[in-house]
Design goal:
Layout: H1 23-37, H2 56-69, H3 78-91, H4 96-103, H5 107-117, H6 122-129, E1 132-135, E2 141-144
Helix pairs in contact: 4-5
InterPro entries: DNA_brk_join_enz, Integrase-like_cat_sf
Organism: Streblomastix strix
GO molecular function: DNA binding
């Protein structure tokens, strides 16, 4: 297994009788689902229509299509959208720890996510879903709480 910047880690799992809490049973089920989605471990994005691997440039174009379909003006970069979302969460009194975990903004957040909370960002997702993009006079888009 690759564990962030720390390199490879070997994990030994042991079978337990109770299948509901058996790590091996859960891993096997997860791995079977994963095999259906992609057989190439290094690919993060695939074209869903013809199942071909996308290049980094094609991934960028696909992300911009998603942003456009969401009604966000194309002059806003992914970084800008991320910054606005972080600011909105600060305005909603979310803690720095919650924001870092959601945004993957720090290495310590990676450590916590990998070892403890398994990316449990429900409160941030809920708060972001309550924010609305509005188009102001003059055609400017703005994230409104």
């Amino acid at each position: 297994l690759l564990k962030g910047k720390r390199g490879r880690v070997e994990v030994t799992l042991k079978v337990v009788e109770n299948k509901a809490v058996c790590s091996i049973t859960r891993f096997q089920a997860w791995n079977e689902k994963r095999k259906i989605k992609t057989t190439d471990k290094d690919l993060l994005w695939k074209n869903s229509e013809n199942k071909t691997a996308l290049t980094p440039e094609e991934c960028s174009k696909e992300i911009h299509i998603v942003i456009s379909n969401a009604g966000i003006d194309k002059k806003f970069s992914v970084t800008t959208i991320r910054k606005v979302a972080i600011s909105a969460m600060q305005n909603k009194d979310k803690t720095k720890i919650q924001i870092d975990r959601w945004s993957r903004h720090s290495e310590s957040a990676d450590t916590v996510r990998e070892n403890y909370d398994e990316n449990n960002n429900d409160s941030i997702r809920k708060a972001l879903s309550e924010c609305v993009w509005t188009r102001e006079e003059g055609g400017m888009s703005k994230l409104r709480e």
